Amino acid sequence: MNATKGPWLVMLALALGTVACAPTHLTINVKSPPGTNQGRPLHMVVRAVDSQRYMTEFYADVAERVVHPDDSVVETLVVYPGEKTQTRVKIPEESPLAISFLFTTPDGAWQVLLDAPIPGRVDIELEESRIRTDAPKKKRASKGGEAPKVEPPKVEPPKVEPPKVEGPKLEAPSPGK
After folding, report:
1. Domain residue spans in the chain?
2. How many CB atoms within 10 Å of residue 49?
């Protein structure tokens, strides 16, 4: 290998390896408890939109995309309460993905924006009228099948020093007075 071409070939291989590792599709897993949307089916809309459009669009604008899809719509599907839903969509090259849920009466977060780099998988849990945004992380079982033991955090009491107080300055009386 030529000494001048060697570093370039290595950098090219690394660059191609990085591009090849980026996911091309996103798997969306939706967990919808029986009480979601008062037990009624709801639409999920996946769109390729920039963050500015995502921030300024109203609920009615997104809902209209179910009936009249535009170029931004990647997929629409119906989510049934009490059932898990999974879909796989192609990740757009240069645009974030918005995943919106059209609840009958939305109360809180009803959509989420996935910005680059978009992962290969996202899990979304729905509540009655919103997307759950504080889902706890599941603890993985240890090799023995038991739940891992969690130690409480070690807390040290704060170090308190008594305040430094200077006494009054006393001057000795002068001998002639």
Report:
1. 22-125
2. 21
Q: Say what the pLDDT of residue 116 is.
A: 86
Domain 22-125 has CATH 2.60.40.4150: yes
CA separation for the pair 157, 155 (Å, rounded): 6
Average pLDDT of the residues in 40-46:
97
Q: Which pTM does this prediction carry? A: 0.65
Tens of pLDDT, residue by residue over 18-39, are 445 678 999 999 999 999 999 9
